[in-house]
Amino acid sequence: MAADLDFTPPEIPEPTFMENILHYGLFLGAIFQLICVLAIILPTPKSHKTDTEGFELKGSEVVKKNKAAAASTSKKPKKETKKKR
């Protein structure tokens, strides 16, 4: 009865080229996601405060100008109608 049992491992086919690409692509994607999550969680030192402050001011001025321009272009002049007598 013990002679009937076969304890050899099953044959696993060799992975194809596309399976290898998928396998390594998934690993690269996971590493990229970990790097992105760590970039969000870990703070970065800000050594150039004057450069970023000047940029923020310029950026807010541009946003205000864009909002004002968008508001003026969205207003259409009212159509004047003549009263019929």
Descriptive overview:
By secondary structure, the chain is mainly alpha-helical. 60% of the residues lie in helices and 0% in strands. It has 2 helices and no strands. The chain starts with 16 loop residues before the first helix and ends in an 11-residue tail after the last helix.
How would you describe this structure in keywords?
0% strand; elongated; transmembrane; transmembrane helix; mainly alpha; 85 residues
- Beta strand %: under 5%
Q: What order do the helices and strands follow?
A: HH
Q: Terminal Cα separation, in Å?
A: 115 Å
Q: Mean pLDDT score, rounded?
A: 75
State the major sheet. none
How would you classify the helix and strand content by structural class?
mainly alpha
Helical coverage, percent range:
55-70%
| Large-scale geometry | elongated
Number of helices: 2
Uncertain segments: none
What is this entry, summarized?
This protein has 85 residues and is mainly α. It has helices at 17-41, 49-74.
